[in-house]
Design a protein that fits this description.
The complex is a heterodimer.
Chain A lengths: L9 H9 L1 H10 L2 E3 L8 H20 L9 H12 L3 H28 L8 H23 L4 H13 L7 H9 L6 H29 L15 H9 L8 E3 H26 L29 H9 L9 H15 L3 H4 L12 H22 L4 H32 L3
Antiparallel strand pairs in A: 1-2
Chain B lengths: L1 H32 L4 H4 L4 E4 L9 E5 L2 E7 L11 E3 L2 E7 L10 E3 L2 E3 L6 E3 L4 E3 L11 E4 L2 E4 L4 H11 L1
Antiparallel strand pairs in B: 1-11, 2-3, 3-5, 4-5, 6-7, 7-8, 8-9, 10-11
Classes of the chains: A mainly alpha, B alpha+beta.
Chain lengths: 416, 166
């Protein structure tokens, strides 16, 4: 065993046993971030904070929530909303945070795509991030079920039925996931478990991995300039702060992050106190009824684009049923982002405005996602159905052409 | 030396084999914990009197938590291989869940329309528009006079099910 001297302070005592000084350096004061960044680089800290808000508000909601089909609706809408002190606040904080967390995730994601921060060594950052997007989506869906209103019930019905599209075992799989022939008490209780335990703990694990994936390739910067982090760090430590291209995470980078966080929290609490309704669908204030489907059902805004890809294909094509095409397109939409680093055939990391065709590609993708989101909320009839069809087809084409246009960009620049 | 290595390999493989069997067995157990409970599987049987239906006006009853559409067809609605014929009347018997993703289509004049993704089914339960991949499903039933019991597979059910498969 190591030899321990008598410590003169609590800090020293901990340092002897845990090397807190070394840990603090590695994680905070000597964890280097490029200088040449903008506010979009603050989204990671915003997401970590929002996840913290979700966790804490969730703990308080869990103390009164009852995962039973006879009690769930009233435990939310009566007990938590009317009786528990500040119960309404915890519910609105939880609901609004669940919605804005996706807004920040999308900004974080598209910042990464714009600046090319997903390739040439940064693949694992991208993949772990996409896994977080998927687990957050699962947490959003399972949480939406808990108030057991009409939207909760029918969203659960539609989403669990998606698994019926799995070849051969589909129908049995749906019954297995639900634990009943329809969405019922067994379904609610098991999704409660997923929402409050398995998914949060998985998310926390992946967040740890996501942080770690940054360690070796480092954070990207606005011009995608490649430089030696060790060399720049030495300059900084030698007092050459102005010349150095890096800053330490703590306290320099974080102070800028906290400023952005401050603006974000003003926006967030404005929503919580004055516009919480956007995250509280009126239809979900009717208790779940397995005999009545609401006149028009739609998911929360952050799922609308993939929902529209799913239902965009409303007629059979070349012997494939509309159902299968929609399901394949939906699987494509949810899986394709994961392989983005390999669809981009440009060997160089550059921001989109330095890659002419990719720049167009990026904004076409944005426009298509907005169209899909808008039409995902409208009833799928008449012209709407056709707009949905073309936007969904466009989404697939956009990803199919990516390898070609990135290759052309590289060729024209003389890099391939 | 090689003797020792073999012995260690053997121990390693034995450990892996025991762990694999134990792991697989616990997965089976966990899978079964999510299966529907016996009380759910035993789920009830629902008896419905068809003689009281008015032609052209479908009714919805519940069976195992699912809606069942029962429609006495009018002459204009035509014949279909899945019609349940009792006396001179033709009936459509169907599970009232859209075969796309399980929403309950609503009766609009002469067809069922699904609000979720726009699917439509005619009076015989056949899909006529949108994403539904197949006609409305047929629930198992037996016929006694003018009433049917949902949940049991009678000869009339088997005949219709076979005709629908063909």
């Amino acid at each position: 065993m190591a030899k321990f001297e008598k410590a003169n302070s609590v800090g020293e005592w901990l340092d002897q046993r845990l090397n807190t000084t070394g840990l603090n350096k590695v994680l905070m004061t000597e964890y280097w971030i490029p200088k040449d960044i903008n506010f979009l680089w603050a989204m990671g800290v915003l997401l970590a904070t929002t996840f913290g808000i979700l966790l804490i508000s969730g703990i308080f909601l869990m103390m009164y929530y009852k995962p039973d089909i006879n009690l769930a609706f009233d435990s939310v809408n009566y007990t938590i909303m009317q009786e528990v002190a500040y119960g309404w606040l915890f519910r609105h904080m939880h609901g609004v945070a669940a919605s804005v967390v996706f807004l920040i995730i999308y900004i974080h994601m598209f910042t990464g795509i714009y600046y090319g921060s997903y390739k040439q060594g940064r693949e694992m950052i991208w993949i772990s991030g996409m896994l977080l997007f998927m687990t957050f989506s699962a947490a959003g869906f399972s949480g939406y079920m808990l108030p057991w209103g009409q939207m909760s019930y029918w969203a659960a019905m539609v989403i669990t039925n998606l698994f019926g599209g799995v070849p051969v075992i589909g129908d049995a799989l749906v019954v297995w996931i639900r634990g009943d022939f329809n969405v019922a008490d067994a379904t609610l209780t098991r999704f409660f478990m997923l929402h409050v335990f398995l998914l949060p703990i998985t998310i926390m694990g992946i967040i740890g991995v996501h942080f770690y994936t940054l360690r070796i390739p480092h954070v990207n910067n606005q011009t995608s300039e490649e430089f030696d982090f060790d060399e720049e760090a030495e300059k900084y430590l030698a007092g050459n702060k102005k010349e150095s291209k890096v800053i330490p995470f703590w306290p320099v980078f974080i102070s800028k992050d906290l400023a952005v966080l401050g603006v974000f929290l003003i926006f967030y609490f404005y929503l919580v106190f004055f516009h919480y309704n956007f995250a509280m669908d009126p239809v979900n204030f009717d208790p779940a009824d397995n005999m009545v489907t609401p006149a028009h059902i739609y998911p929360e805004w952050y799922f609308l684009w993939s929902y529209e890809v799913l239902r965009g294909f409303f007629f059979d094509i070349a012997g494939f049923s509309a159902f299968d095409i929609g399901l394949i397109a939906f699987a494509f939409a949810n899986g394709i982002f994961l392989v983005l680093p390999w669809l981009d055939r440009d060997p160089k990391i550059l921001p989109a405005h330095k890659r002419p065709l990719f720049f167009i590609w990026f904004w076409v993708l944005m426009a298509d996602l907005i169209v899909l989101t808008v039409y995902g909320k409208l009833p799928p009839t008449g012209t709407n159905a056709w707009v949905g069809f073309f936007a969904a087809t466009a989404f697939i084409v956009i990803f199919l052409v990516l390898p070609i246009i990135t290759k052309i960009d590289a060729k024209r620049r003389g890099d391939a | 030396m090689s003797n020792k290595t073999n012995r260690r390999d053997f121990l390693g493989y034995s450990f892996a084999a025991v762990a694999a069997v134990g792991g697989a067995a616990s997965l089976v157990g966990m899978k079964q914990a999510w299966d529907p409970l016996p009380s759910v599987l035993a789920g009830g049987f629902t008896k419905v009197e068809l003689g009281e239906l008015k032609a052209g006006n479908p009714v919805t009853v519940t069976w195992r938590g699912k809606p069942i559409f029962l429609l006495k067809k009018t002459a204009e609605m035509g014949e279909n291989k899945r019609d349940l014929i009792i006396g001179s009347d033709r009936f459509t018997v169907a599970i009232g869940l859209c075969t796309h993703l399980g929403c309950i289509p609503a009766w609009k004049k002469d067809k069922w329309k699904c609000a979720c993704h726009g699917g439509e089914f005619n009076a015989s339960g056949k899909q006529t528009f949108g994403p539904p991949p197949r006609p409305l499903d047929l629930p198992p039933f037996t016929v006694n006079g003018t009433s049917i019991t949902l949940g049991e597979e009678g000869p009339e059910y088997k005949k219709i099910a076979a005709a629908m498969m063909a």
